[in-house]
Design a protein that fits this description.
The complex is a heterotrimer.
Chain A: E1 2-13, E2 16-28, E3 33-37, H1 44-51, E4 59-64, E5 67-68, H2 74-84, E6 85-88, H3 100-111, H4 115-128, H5 144-156, E7 162-166, H6 174-189, E8 193-197, H7 201-204, E9 209-214, E10 217-223
Parallel strand pairs in A: 3-8, 3-9, 6-7, 7-8
Antiparallel strand pairs in A: 1-2, 1-4, 4-5, 9-10
Helix pairs in contact in A: 3-4, 3-5, 5-6
Chain B: H1 3-16, E1 20-29, E2 35-46, E3 52-60, E4 68-75, E5 78-85, E6 90-94, H2 110-113, E7 122-132, E8 135-144, E9 152-158, E10 164-171, E11 174-187, E12 190-200, E13 205-216, H3 227-233
Antiparallel strand pairs in B: 1-2, 1-13, 2-3, 3-4, 4-5, 5-6, 7-8, 8-9, 9-10, 10-11, 11-12, 12-13
Chain C: H1 2-17, H2 19-58, E1 63-66, E2 72-73, H3 75-81, E3 86-99, E4 106-112, H4 135-140, E5 144-148, H5 149-155, E6 162-167, E7 170-180, E8 193-197, H6 198-204, E9 210-211, E10 213-218, H7 224-234, E11 240-242, H8 244-287, H9 289-297, H10 302-347, H11 359-383, H12 402-429, H13 439-471, H14 477-489, H15 491-529, E12 534-537, E13 552-553, H16 556-561, E14 566-579, E15 582-589, H17 594-597, E16 602-604, H18 609-612, E17 618-622, H19 623-629, E18 636-641, E19 644-654, E20 663-667, H20 668-675, E21 679-680, E22 682-687, H21 693-704, E23 711-714, H22 715-758, H23 760-768, H24 773-815, H25 825-851, H26 855-860
Parallel strand pairs in C: 4-8, 5-7, 15-20, 17-19
Antiparallel strand pairs in C: 1-10, 1-11, 2-9, 3-4, 3-6, 3-10, 5-8, 6-7, 12-22, 12-23, 13-21, 14-15, 14-22, 16-19, 17-20, 18-19
Classes of the chains: A alpha/beta, B mainly beta, C alpha+beta.
Chain lengths: 229, 235, 862
């Protein structure tokens, strides 16, 4: 469902040209739980940004469901992010001034749906995340794990085609991390396509497929349970 | 007898009294109890059948001494009025538009001051008969045919004297001005009230008029009633 | 709508959370709208009340006949009364008088024919309502006067009381014969009106068998124009027949001038409001960069983000505008009396009874507030689009298309400055009379310059920091270096603070330079023109022409000259005349004696020419008149005289600042001949050498004691009075300056606070490696001082230029090109000191905050 063909990304840092990603070709299938691994600066996040439509490749092509993500306008890309992609960030990136339910509703609010139509779904998602009693809390009143679960609920509210997670437990203790991974696993079991960036091999092991990046290139592609790309 | 006939008789008496020289005292009482006394001499002359001329000059108080008024009545409803103020040394014409207004702060109207009205301008109805000061009277309701400050007045006319002894002015239902005429003496065959009183019910202002001396059938010449003689009288 | 839901969910919460900043922006816009609204209210209320007073005084008159300033023979009345179509024609004397004791209040005396005037105006002299105990006495005595009940109560005057009144004929005693109820004319001018019989008024005011005006009503079925033509034919030439509406239009024209200067103030207030909005939105965009990133990441389009900020601005400015209207009402209420007084002293009597606020003006001002706010927010809101969605994610280099924006900003800045430059160049080359010089051009130049420099602020700051690093930073140690770096890192945001300082300093420097120039010009003029030792006026010495003064008979000149010690006496008469709809001051002097004691700067002609116009049909004009009417020495100028238009030759063009609407000088005998007016508004007295001025002054006072009330002033005092008056006019400017400086200070606080909060981690690191609290706050203070200095320098440069534009574009047009530009150096020095001082003061709080940073929390954070 997502296909990268010789995708490269480079940017300028001062006078230096940095090649974050070099000629990566990759196909992510529907229903996959893909873990992306690699050392710092290997291009993991850059790859995730391209897959999620946060950024566009300097060279090469990228398709989601056969439609290109490269060479399209910012607004088109934004609509794809809004409707097809769900993001989970290391630092949760909730808006501190909004309550849990408002944060979850945000993507649909951007779509123009009235809040009272979104609210039941947002509350239901929060219930599923075990946050039924935290609906009207603000981020600062929540623990790290709770914040990340709000973020997951926000990512799911649009029924995205793909869920992208960037070091989702990087800021959480190991017990809470375990819970988050279990949550992601459950979602995957229900058929959710997930792409997760992590540098923790134990975390990566929750996925159905692990790729490893090194210096911006694909160095390893392992399918867990026998399948490989 | 009809109301009109009553007032024709009243008019006849008024006409007879037109040739005269009167000295009188006028006292104005204001609502606060203040009192102003003025004395004046009035000369009058019957002119053609339906008109007259009159000249009045103040003798006191000193502030008003020699202030004079001159009336030329062409008909009894059309008259010219001039005033003379000695300190300005000029005769001023007074517009003929406000015949019902107070005559310079007194409770007399310009009309009261300037002679008998024109009967054709009014409608007369006898209401009843009553006695006033032991004199039998017709009580006549007089309604103006043109727009006036009052809507009607009621006059008590003494039956044998043919003069008004009492008068009440109305604005619709409300009586606002009354007059009474007392101490009626017969002077040269003309019944003359020596003391009269006009009261404004609205302002509680009252004016008393007392005749100090009176002469009838004076037959003054026309030269007395000119603007020049008004100026001369003021000197 | 997406935006409304989003707005409710996000923006309104921000507005609520950022109370202080929101409140400031709110206040700024509210202030702008309030200024506009109050000016609208005051303006229309003053006009309305003037019109109302005129209507009350004119009554049912549809035509008014006027002749010479000093009145015309009353025989004209009869001629007019006989004109077919005229219903009533009544005589009027209208003159100013003032109480000689007590409040010395001045009032208008209306002399009418009380026996006929009820045809024209509503009051009943002999009716029941008014309190006139003895109307006969009123008419019989020449000292009779009626006051309004209002005035009598205010002054504690009762019926039959004698009052002393200052008139043209000197002090007069009148007897109050009665009081008028507030109805008809008695309700005009706030009750400052007295009624006399016309003949008594003629005696009291020396109008021998003359009247000032004939009020005419017209028979039904007659047209105004045909009656007017017939009257014109019946009268000799030189009479004006005007409709009362024409008179109120004149007043509106007068108010237009006043309004122009008020509009500048409201424009500045609005500009300040816009600056606050710009500042607020800019900071908001910077502070909410993360939020913008998140929103962008989860699918908010650029348009939605811009819309968000603009919608916030609309919400804010809507509230602010409504507040502004309310505040404007309050301001109007507070200022209306002062304004009415100013207007009275400048243009004639007025008394404002009610405030007049039209819905149209409310809507217009609210709309202006919103549009101005949106315009101010547009640029920073647009800059939000250069926050890339990836900035929500850690560890990625900050990619932005800021270069494009910066290029756009540079282009805009340059074009605005260029536009201002072109206008300046045009002003430098064309003459003062050129139609290219007008108020909108001038406003455009000042606006462009300010906007251009504001946009160029980041660029300037960059240079400034470079210079700072080269010159000063090495001496300030690590703190100095860090401060420079910090400023450079967030150039855009810091530039906003710099621009705020620039704006306020520029405003204060330009206005003080302009005021200084105007002041110097006027003072130089006064010093050079008037060398007299003593001045005598019967009205207030500072009342200008057209103000309610009570002139003195010219014959007083001989009386004054006979007083021992007096060497010479010069009479002055001033009145405004209408030339082709333009109000011009006509000033009468004795052209023979005046030049003996005075000099003036001659533009065309020679000083010796002036006495030669004695008694001739010649005048001298000031630059302003010469320019506007295209006159040169030898040209002919047609003046409206009471006996019709008459040509006068221009003998010389001179410098005079006596009026901002132009001055024409005429010889007194010429004036007496054509105007048949023999009074003087002022006498200036020259004392014999060696005589004690004070003693002569006392002798003059003694000579007129009890017969005439007048101001006998030593000329020195007079000049000081003028100086004081000029100083007072600066106060308003100072108030605006202080306000903008405060706003600039606030801008610095917000900016530095934001940058301190953002640098929490960095400060934590610095602290952890051993930086002292004092050093941390030192860095912040150096930053704020640098912002202040940069803004101050920029402001001084721009201010000097703006002041020049202002002088060229507004003042010189009114006063003539010989007015020179004097930069006010002390104000520049104070401005710079103020800018840096205030900036440091503003930096104190952020510095404290920075110093208090908790090391472990800071390092743990993010």
């Amino acid at each position: 469902m997502i296909e990268l063909k010789n995708a490269s990304k480079s940017y300028k840092q001062g006078s230096r040209e940095v090649h974050a990603l070099r000629n990566v070709s990759l196909t992510i299938r529907k229903g996959e739980f893909l873990s992306i691994m690699g050392p710092s600066g290997s291009g993991k996040s850059t790859l995730l940004n391209l897959v999620g439509g946060l950024d566009q490749p300097s060279q090469g092509e990228i398709f989601m469901d056969g439609k290109p993500l490269h060479g399209i306008s910012d607004d088109e890309l934004t609509l794809i992010r809004r409707r097809r992609v769900g993001f989970i960030f290391q630092f949760f990136n909730l808006l501190p001034i909004l309550t849990a339910v408002e944060n979850v509703s945000l993507p649909l609010l951007l779509e123009g749906t009235p809040f009272n139509q979104i609210q039941p779904r947002a509350v239901e998602l929060l219930n599923q995340m075990g946050l039924g009693n935290r609906v009207e809390h603000r981020p600062e009143q929540l623990s790290g794990g709770e914040m990340q679960r709000v973020a997951i609920a926000r990512a799911l509210v649009t029924n995205p085609a793909v869920l992208l997670a960037d070091e989702p437990t990087g800021n959480l203790d190991s017990h809470t991390s375990e819970e988050i991974f279990m949550l992601l696993k459950t979602l995957h079991d229900k058929g959710q396509t997930i792409v997760m960036v992590t540098h923790d091999p134990r975390a990566a092991a929750y996925g159905s497929r692990i790729i490893t990046l090194k210096d911006g290139s694909l160095s390893e592609d392992i399918a867990i349970g026998g399948q490989a790309a | 007898m009809s109301g009109r006939e009553v007032f024709e008789k009243v008019h006849d008496v008024s006409m007879k009294s037109l040739d005269h020289e009167i000295e009188m005292t006028m006292v104005l009482f204001d609502r606060g109890g203040g009192k102003r006394t003025r004395s004046l001499t009035s000369y009058s002359k019957k002119a053609d059948p339906e008109a007259y001329k009159a000249l009045a000059v103040f003798n006191s108080p000193p502030d008003l001494k020699n202030v004079g008024f001159l009336v030329h009545a062409h008909t009894f409803s059309d008259r010219d009025l001039w005033a003379y103020f000695p300190e300005f040394k000029r005769v001023r014409r007074i517009a003929n538009t406000s015949q019902d207004d107070s005559f310079f702060g007194s409770d007399l109207s310009y009309d009261d001051f300037t002679g008998p009205p024109n009967l054709d301008d009014f409608k007369f109805d006898i209401l009843k008969e009553e006695t006033v000061d032991n004199k039998p009277c017709y009580v006549v309701e007089v309604t103006p045919k043109t727009h006036r400050k009052y809507t009607k007045y009621i006059a008590w006319v003494a039956k044998d004297l043919w003069i008004q002894l009492k008068i009440e002015y109305y604005q619709d239902k409300e009586m606002y001005r009354t007059g009474s005429f007392q101490d009626v003496r017969n002077i040269d065959g003309i019944p003359t009230p020596f003391h009269s009183e006009m009261t404004n019910k609205k302002t509680n202002h009252r004016t008393e008029l007392t005749i100090d001396s009176i002469k009838y059938h004076t037959r003054f010449g026309d030269e007395l009633f000119t603007q020049r003689s008004l100026e001369r009288a003021g000197k | 709508m997406t935006l409304t839901t989003l707005l409710r969910r996000i923006s309104l919460k921000h507005i609520r959370h950022q109370k202080m900043r929101t409140a400031m922006a709110l206040f700024g816009v509210a202030l702008g709208v309030a200024a506009m609204t109050s000016i609208d209210i005051v303006n229309s209320s003053v006009i309305r009340s003037l019109e109302d007073s005129i209507n009350r005084i004119t009554g049912r008159a549809v035509l008014q006949i006027t002749g010479a300033e000093s009145g015309f023979p009353e025989e004209m009345l009869e001629k007019v009364q006989k004109v077919p179509g005229v219903e009533y024609a009544v005589p009027v004397i209208e003159t100013n008088a003032s109480l000689a004791t007590g409040s010395e209040r001045s009032f208008v005396v209306l002399g009418v024919d009380v026996l006929q005037d009820s045809n024209m105006r509503d009051y009943s002299v002999t009716g029941d309502s008014s309190d006139i105990p003895d109307p006969l006495l009123f008419l019989a005595k020449p000292d009779s006067i009626l006051l309004t009940r209002e005035m009598a109560q205010r002054e504690g005057i009762s019926i039959d009381q004698k009052i002393e009144v200052q008139t043209v004929q000197g002090l007069k005693t009148f007897t109050v014969r009665g009081l008028l109820e507030p109805d008809g004319p008695a309700k005009a001018l706030g009750g400052d009106i007295a009624l006399m019989d016309i003949y008594a008024a003629q005696l009291a005011f020396g109008k021998n068998a003359r009247i000032d005006r004939i009020d005419v009503s017209v028979l039904r079925g007659e047209t105004l124009d045909s009656v007017k033509t017939r009257i014109q034919a019946a009268l000799p030439s030189g009479y004006n027949i005007d409709t009362p509406a024409g008179r109120s239009r004149q007043i509106e024209n007068l108010m237009g001038r006043f309004r122009k200067s008020m509009d500048v103030i409201s424009f500045m207030a609005l500009f300040v409001g816009m600056y606050l909005i710009y500042n607020t939105v800019s900071i908001s965009v910077v502070q909410r960069k993360k939020e913008i990133g998140i929103l962008r990441a989860i699918g908010a389009t650029r348009g939605q983000i811009i819309g968000l900020f603009l919608a916030e601005t609309v919400a804010l400015s809507l509230i602010a505008s409504f507040l502004g209207v309310a505040l404007g009402w309050v301001l109007a209420k507070l200022s209306i009396n002062a304004v009415a007084q100013t207007v009275s002293s400048m243009y004639g009597r007025s008394s404002v009874t009610g405030l007049d606020l039209s819905l149209a003006s409310v809507l217009r001002n609210i709309a202006t507030g919103i549009v101005a706010s949106l315009a101010a927010a547009a640029f920073p809101a647009y800059s939000s689009t250069h926050v890339a969605p990836v900035s929500a994610i850690r560890s990625l280099a900050y990619t932005s298309n800021g270069t494009v924006l910066r290029r756009l900003q540079k282009i805009l800045a340059l074009s605005f400055i260029l536009l201002a430059g072109i206008i300046i160049a045009v002003y430098k080359t064309v003459g003062v009379a050129s139609p290219l010089r007008n108020s909108s051009m001038t406003t455009l130049a000042m606006f462009s310059l300010t906007l251009g420099v504001s946009l160029a602020a980041p660029l300037f700051l960059k240079w400034f920091i470079r210079a700072y690093r080269a010159v000063l930073a090495p001496r300030l140690g690590a703190g100095g270096r860090l401060a420079g770096l910090n400023l450079e890192k967030n150039l855009t945001r810091n530039a906003v603070a710099v621009a705020a300082v620039f704006f306020s300093i520029s405003l204060s420097v330009s206005s003080s330079s302009m005021m200084n120039s105007a002041r110097r010009g006027v003072m130089d003029y006064i010093d050079s023109v008037d060398n007299s030792d003593i001045l005598i006026t019967s009205g207030h010495p500072l009342a200008s022409a057209g103000a309610p003064t009570i002139p003195m008979p010219l014959s007083m000149r001989q009386e004054l000259e006979s007083i021992p010690g007096v060497r010479s006496v010069d009479p002055f008469r001033k009145l405004f005349i209408n030339i082709d709809g333009r109000r011009v001051l006509l000033e009468m002097i004795d052209v023979v004696t005046w030049p003996r004691n005075n000099t003036c700067t001659i533009i065309e002609g020679a000083m010796q020419d002036i006495p030669l116009i004695r008694g001739k049909d010649e005048v001298t004009v000031n630059e302003n008149v010469a320019m506007r009417m295209g006159l040169k020495k030898g040209s002919t100028l047609v003046l409206p005289t009471p006996s019709g238009p008459r040509p006068f030759r221009v003998a010389a063009v001179i410098v005079s600042y006596a009026s901002d609407s132009g001055v024409i000088f005429m010889d007194m005998p010429t004036y007496e001949k054509y105007w048949n007016d023999h009074v003087s508004d002022m006498f200036s007295i020259y004392v014999e050498k060696g005589r004690d001025i004070a003693a002569v002054r006392t002798a003059i006072q003694k000579r007129y004691q009890g017969t005439r009330k007048m101001f006998v002033l030593a000329a020195l005092e007079f000049r000081q009075e003028i100086k004081k008056m000029l100083d007072r006019s600066v106060v308003m400017n100072d108030a605006v300056n202080v306000l903008t400086l405060l706003i600039a200070g606030f801008g610095i606080i917000v900016t530095l606070l934001a940058s301190v909060l953002e640098r929490t981690r960095e400060i934590g690191i610095l602290r952890s490696i051993g930086m002292q609290r004092r050093q941390v706050s030192g860095v912040v203070l150096i930053e704020s001082a640098l912002i202040g200095a940069a803004g101050g320098l920029l402001g001084i440069c721009a201010g000097v230029i703006t002041g020049w534009i202002n002088l060229e574009g507004f003042f010189r047009i009114d006063f003539g090109p010989s007015m020179a530009y004097h930069i006010h150096y002390p104000s520049i020095a104070t401005a710079l000191l103020f800018a840096v001082g205030l900036s440091i003061l503003a930096g104190l709080y952020p510095a404290r905050r920075a110093a208090k940073t908790n090391i472990t929390e800071a390092l743990a954070y993010e």
